[in-house]
Amino acid sequence: MLKKLFAAIVAATMVLGLASFASAATPSFPDTVGIPEETQIATLKALGIVTGDEQGRFNPDGTFTRAQMAVIAVKLMGQAEAAEFMKQPTVFPDVEARHQWAWGYINVAVGQGIITGRPDGTFGPDDPATYVDVLVLLLRILNYEPILVGTWPTKYLVKANEIGLTKGVSFRADVPATRRNVAVLAYNALTARKVIQVAYGAQSKYVVSGDEGTEVKTLLDNLGTTPDEGWLVSSPEIFGADKDKIVVWVDSEKEGTKGVIDDGEEKVIPLAEGTDVTGLLGHRVKVWKNTDGEAFLVQDKTPASAIKAAYYYNGKVYLAANDKEVDLSSVYCFRNYEGPDLAKDVPALAPKSGDEITIVYDGTTPRFAFSLGYTTAVVDSVSTIYQRIAFADGAGTLTVKDWDVKFVGAVEELGEIQKNDVVQYIANPTAKRAVLIVTRNAPTGKFTRIEGTTITVGGVNYKRAPGGSTPDQAWLGSDVKVLLNKSGRYVKVIKLGAPTVPSTIAVVLDQVANVPTPEGLVEYWKLLLADGTKTALPIEDALHGKAAEGDIIEYKVTDGRISWAEVKMGQDPGDPGLILVPSYKLLDGKLITSTTAIFYFESGKEPQAIGWDVLKDMSGIQGWILADGSKAKVVKITSATTAVAGDKLYGYVLTMYRYWDADRQTSEYAVSVLKDGTVVDYVYDSGGPFEGGEVVAFQMKAGKAVFTKLDEDQPAEEGYEWRVESIDDNLITLQKYEADGDKVANATKTYVIITDPDAKVRTQFVDTTGDEPVGLTGLSTGLRVRVYSDGDLSGTPVAHVIVVY
Question: Which end of the chain is more exposed for a tag (fewer CB within 10 A), N or C?
Fold first, then answer.
């Protein structure tokens, strides 16, 4: 289905690129849905110019016969009724009785000089019409024949190109014309200016209508429609406006009417199904209506030169081209897809700082002003279930469930939006409509310069977008990714190639004193870094004796020397046991992240730097942890020997019921549990009874399930709730909110740990907001949740089940 657009005036450059008129865009035939020529074909059908075959198809890749083209030409002339009166044999011998359906049309065309036949006196009614045949007919019904200069067929081809008939069509003149291309040619001819005769007799003279003071005439005038002409002041583009109507201030003879445009009168005109008027708001238009009074064609009468870009500065609006101030006190202003009250003399929706502004002029007078003030943010995550976008850097969320949303740019629907896309949006919760401009333009390169709001990356300069964040100057010399908005300005810069483990934490492997250097004798420390590499660095004299071999240190380098160091783990008095839960990336209740430094001091061997891929397979771990809140910053492992106990399962109870076990010839209880997104029935052993909505842990025993009911880690307080604030790797931060949606100021945040998606025993996510509970694959920020664990670990709790409600 051809998309119905309602947002287009985003900048002067976009306005200038709009089509000159809008028309019916609904698919008129089942086989024209989505094809490029759909609009043109639908318009011709609305006018009764073309019809389908017996099955209602248009057959866009087929051809029209010469007889069928004669019918189309006569209908375009508005002479279909005359053709009915002339349904009699024609002058052509090959137009037989089987062509009776075309007799009247061919006779009218012959009488009007539109067709003349072939030199041998035949017409060739069943021959496919070539592109030359079609253009000759169109130019003749436009009355260009008297002013054509040259020979056949060149004079027709040249003139057709000159007046725009061939716009959008590529062809070879002597081959059969496809039906889809004929539709485009005829559509272009509808608004082409006709040639009219202005003098007769010996002084006979023809001019293109509209020249030499004459009135413009088009084929639309032939079709019995009377257009309304005026200013388009309301359309479906306006949030809250009717989607099937437009409002035009039509020219009138009335005088002294206050609050109207050009002493006109308001006329509400219904739109024919599919008629698209995108981008014409505020333009002077000519509206053509069908016999039902519906607008099927809206012709733009505003020249491109009348549309000008402007900007806001210090409370005033200036033209971008010449910095000339524009007085908008008597100009009707539209802002963020809301329209002014046209009954008032003073506009109320004036532009604001940072808006993109476009002004439509009527001669030298500014008539309408359009301004758009976007909210700009970088995407963190998207939930298609909740129709919600979570933005990075604390920019909040945007929920568009059941909204009418127009997507512009890199995507066509919500599910296509990706992390780090730049979104510029205007949202109206009252009207439940939004415009989202999504940009996925993120060049990468070396960050080499920063000057004011301009940065240089990969040799290219980028200016900062309003509200954009300036990159850290310490990143100079690093590879970065630049996230750009639709105007090519940077919103955010992301550092690339950052180490997965800290580069300032290391094990001291050796200390070598009195190393001769050009600066004298210097002490060096040989270090094992957390990424497994080794290095040797000189130290400041003041650090002598501050660390011993085998110590784990954090250090800082200045001018090539270790200028500061602190021992984080030295020679430990004992080696306590550490409980590892691989499913949750958890060691002794602390989360192992990509920035955790892990060192393995295996007896009799040199220390090793290891990663999660090694740690996750270890068991019976002895060692020490240095934590940073809920995260493990440094891990020192001294041994790993014993095996890990088995796993529990977790789920959300849907119901408990009794059934007959035919094999055992007895009745049993069973519990339906939502687990891993599917419903599984387990034979009940003990731990209940249960009601739907309870959260359980369970283990299998001789084919039956032993259940344990889990309680919420954060019991609901009356008037309060917990929402997901952020998701950092396997760590979720919860924020306390009041029930009315306001964040509780200074409330202590809660942290919970979830599993990796590929873990054997995964955290269960359950959505209970719909008619039936369903499983989720993950969470997004902003969701209201309840968290359940079974208290088997100390520190930050492990979330076995998270319920969204």
Answer: N
Q: According to DSSP H, which parts of 572-636 are helical?
A: 612-615
According to DSSP, residue 102 is labeled H
Q: Kind and range of the H or E element at 71?
A: helix 66-76
Q: 12 pLDDT exceeds 50?
A: no
- Tell me the C-alpha distance between 232 and 102, whole Å: 41
Give backbone dihedrals phi and psi of 306, rounded to 5 degrees, phi first: -85, -5
Residue for token digits 């010399």?
A: 477
Whole-Å CA distances, 270 to 246, 273, 275, 615: 6, 9, 10, 69
* pLDDT per position as a tens digit, 713-732: 766 677 788 888 888 778 88
pLDDT at 266 over 50: yes
For residue 451, what are the β-bridge partners? Answer: 454
Per-residue pLDDT tens for 765-803?
A: 999 988 889 888 888 888 889 998 876 545 677 888 999
Q: What is the pLDDT of residues 178-231, one digit of tens each?
A: 999 999 999 999 989 999 999 988 889 999 998 998 888 889 888 766 788 888
Strands of the sheet with 774-776, listed across from one edge = 750-753, 731-738, 720-728, 784-788, 801-804, 764-767, 774-776
End-to-end CA distance of the chain: 35
Longest dimension (CA), the chain: 121
- Amino acid sitting at position 612: W
Global pTM value: 0.54
Give 347 or 407, the one with higher predicted confidence.
Answer: 407
Query: How far is C-alpha 381 from the geometric centre of its chain's CA atoms?
Result: 13
Q: CB neighbours (10 Å) of residue 335?
A: 21
In the block, residue with structure tokens 């012709």: 299
Contacts of 356 (CB under 8 A, 6+ apart): 10, 11, 371, 372, 373, 374
**pLDDT band at residue 89, thresholds of 50, 70 and 90?**
very high
Q: Is the pLDDT of residue 156 over 90?
A: yes
C-alpha dihedral sign at 597, 600, 601, 606: negative
Q: Which two tokens stand for residue 208?
A: 């293109």
Note every long-range contact of 210-214, with CB atoms under 8 Å and residues 24 or more positions apart, other chains counting: none
Residue 340, preceding peptide bond in cis (omega within 30° of 0): no
Q: Are 317 and 335 in contact (CB under 8 A)?
A: no
How many helices (H) and strands (E) the chain has is answered by 9, 50
CA distances from 481 to 23, 451, 472, 474 (A): 43, 18, 13, 15
> What is the length of the chain?
805
Report the C-alpha gap between 54 and 14 in whole angstroms.
42
> In the 8-state DSSP scheme, what is residue 584?
G
Q: Where are the beta strands (DSSP E) in 677-756?
A: 678-686, 695-701, 704-709, 720-728, 731-738, 750-753
Cβ–Cβ < 8 Å for 620, 578:
no
CA separation (Å) from 339 to 233, 461, 527?
Answer: 8, 38, 67
Tokens of 168: 């959008």
Integer Cα distance of 609 and 598 in angstroms: 6
Average pLDDT, integer, range 648-668: 80
What pLDDT, on the 0 to 100 scale, is given for residue 342? 66
Separation between Cα atoms, residue 665 and residue 536, nearest integer Å: 76
CA atoms within 13 A on the CB side of 642: 10
Kindly report the number of other CB atoms within 10 A of residue 365's CB atom: 8
